[in-house]
């Protein structure tokens, strides 16, 4: 078992969407949450690789990807994470569109019932996250 698991990132993706849409959502969720959570909490470490002429920045903590059966499960997860005060990022179907402006307007003007959740990403203490995410399966 991985040693540094006191905290973790947990992404949960809606299995009803095609993989390319899910990967797009996951990228936006991760980069967006990076702007919410201070790097001191995520403990980004440098992984230098002289042989490959690069230095990667990777969080000390695990990044787990799970899947949900539907968007309502994601809505519940996002609400529960918010109630726990956990940093979270949500990606809905309104965030797909021809421009950022169109996506922002669609998201802003959608009713709660119209929002189809594609993914949710949460970061926090593993012991707080575990009860919120235990019903989800590993993404395959």
UniProtKB/TrEMBL annotation:
<dbReference type="InterPro" id="IPR023476">
    <property type="entry name" value="Pep_tRNA_hydro_II_dom_sf"/>
</dbReference>
<dbReference type="Pfam" id="PF09391">
    <property type="entry name" value="DUF2000"/>
</dbReference>
<protein>
    <submittedName>
        <fullName>DUF2000 domain-containing protein</fullName>
    </submittedName>
</protein>
<dbReference type="InterPro" id="IPR018988">
    <property type="entry name" value="DUF2000"/>
</dbReference>
């Amino acid at each position: 078992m991985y040693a540094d698991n006191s905290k973790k990132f947990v992404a949960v993706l809606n299995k009803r969407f095609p993989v390319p849409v899910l990967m797009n959502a996951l990228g936006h969720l991760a980069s967006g949450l990076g702007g919410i959570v201070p790097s001191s909490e995520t403990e980004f470490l440098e992984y230098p690789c002289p042989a490959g002429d690069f230095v990667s920045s990777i969080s000390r903590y695990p990044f787990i990807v799970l899947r949900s059966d539907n968007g309502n499960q994601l809505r519940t997860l996002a609400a529960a994470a918010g109630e726990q005060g956990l940093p979270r990022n949500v990606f809905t179907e309104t965030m797909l569109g021809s421009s950022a402006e169109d996506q922002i307007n669609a998201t802003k003007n959608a009713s709660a019932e119209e929002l189809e959740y594609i993914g949710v990403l949460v970061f926090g203490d593993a012991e707080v996250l575990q009860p919120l995410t235990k019903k989800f399966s590993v993404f395959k």
